Amino acid sequence: MSATESKPEPRQQPQSNAAVVGVSMRDLLASCAAAHEISTPPRVPDPQPSRRPAEHRKAA
Q1: Which secondary-structure segment (H or E) carries 25?
Q2: What stretch of H or E contains 17?
């Protein structure tokens, strides 16, 4: 074999981290829903309509 020729490299299987074996879709969706609830800030209360202070009568 000459120096310019190369040995064919063995093919490697692509590694995939996308699939987790042993977790049901139900558990996965439940964990996503829980993470969403935890990461969402509490809702701001609706502003109360402004009321004018009652006018006081002057003493006689």
Answers
A1: helix 25-39
A2: none
Q: Map residue 40 onto helix, strand or coil.
A: coil
Query: For 21-46, what is each residue's pLDDT tens digit?
Result: 789 999 999 999 999 999 999 888 88
Amino acid at 2: S
* 3-state class (DSSP) for residue 56: coil
Whole-angstrom Cα distance, residue 50 to residue 56? Answer: 18
- The residues, ordered by sequence, that sit 6+ positions from 24 with a Cβ below 8 Å of its Cβ are none
Region 6-31 average pLDDT: 76
Share of the chain above pLDDT 70, in %: 58
From CA 59, how far away is CA 30, in angstroms rounded?
Answer: 66
